[in-house]
Amino acid sequence: MNNYKTLKHIQNDILQNKITLRGLVLHYLDNINAKKHLNAFVEVFETEAIQKAEQIDEKIQSGNAGKLAGMVVALKDNICYKGHAVSASSKILEGFQSVYSATVVQRLLAEDAIIIGRLNCDEFAMGASNETSYYGPVKNPIDETRVSGGSSGGAAVAVSANMCLAAIASDTGGSVRQPAAFCGVIGIKPTYGRVSRNGLLAYASSFDQIGPITQSMDDMKLLMEVISGKDPADATTSSRPVPNYNSSNTIAPQKIGYIKECLFHSAIDEEIKQATLAVIDKLKQDGHTVEEISFPYLDYLVPTYYVLTTAEASSNLSRFSGLTFGHRSKQAVDLETVFKNSRSEGFGKEVKRRIMLGTFVLSAGSYEAYYTKAQQVRRLVQDKTNEIFDTYDFILSPTTPTTAFKFGEKSDNPIAMYLADLFTVHANISGNPAISVPMGTHTNKMPMGIQLMAKHFCEGEMMTLAETISS
Description:
Blueprint: H1 7-15, H2 21-34, E1 41-44, H3 46-62, E2 72-76, H4 103-110, E3 114-119, H5 153-160, E4 166-171, H6 177-183, E5 186-189, E6 209-214, H7 217-227, E7 255-259, H8 260-263, H9 270-285, E8 289-293, H10 298-316, H11 335-346, H12 349-361, H13 367-391, E9 394-398, H14 414-418, H15 425-430, E10 434-441, E11 447-454, H16 459-470
Parallel strand pairs: 2-3, 2-4, 7-8, 7-9
Antiparallel strand pairs: 1-3, 4-6, 5-6, 5-10, 9-11, 10-11
Helix pairs in contact: 2-3, 5-6, 10-12, 10-13
């Protein structure tokens, strides 16, 4: 059977009786089994997916199937699906089952998507390489000695290696876009409030957004239509109507700014820089105005991000105490040791590091010096970003400073690891939408990604321009 790249192709072949949805699901299950060593999945819903496929095959024949009929998706292991395990790839939630489904899951199922499994990720989405997962690291399918990126490494690998057509993941500082770039697929971080976070295990609530990973822009647009929109269960969602993102595949000449501090940063790989300059030249040839702009806060982005997200994580993860659900230490003898031992045994090294940092910056002696100042810098970043968008339609940059790095290369150096998100955290700090699309191949044979950031709620225009870049 074909390794399908688009839902349209799948639906056409089903209607022409070339394949059945049941046969397609079996094909994906075979791929998952054959590529088990990549460690992309932590659980596969084999029986359920086959049964669901048979039901939707009947709906297709009767002509009343949803718009996602034929779409086989997988969920990052921090998105709740009722009656199924969810652990954020952490020991502390081992054995826990969701008691409700996330809003995005409800919307996918309502349109007849099939959920084939849950995907490995960095523990509680904290990481840039998928090396912090309780279930072990995820291998890059293009070079298995290299990382998949993170935190949504399993999601990017599953899509890149044709283990599912699409994945639904979360992006707090680049966790969708960075692994998408490392694995040669498309990843989007929507505007903050465009997609409901109800049912997402929180890392940093004012940064988190759910976004898809796909191989085609048509599928990305369709998934964004389905999962976006107001949700009464998430007060931060916007009531703005969701447009038909696939209504237009052409875009008028745009004004685009590229940040010189990104392109000429000391950390950037020379080939990525030259590939980005080639994209800029092509955009100019296509009639777009592309100009160099300055963003003076670039080197403050990562420190600001880590102060604020660890502070929020320190609060969010305090609910995992060993009392109500998840891991409870067998060594505990009283309330204090339940807390201490359960959290010490249940959380991994990176999560503990971030909880401690977050607790420190929220402490009485450090709050003003760190947390308050970081919030002030966040406002400066937001104001400067809005100022740029008063003149420009899009901001362009490489997605990552380098291609996927080798396992262990940065795991003992947190600062070097954090810099992998240097170009992606901007959109999470400002709340703007951003997308990563493939930008060719490095001489080391690894994919490179280019990122577009747009004005709030301009995902449609952003996806259309990104499609012209990647093609």
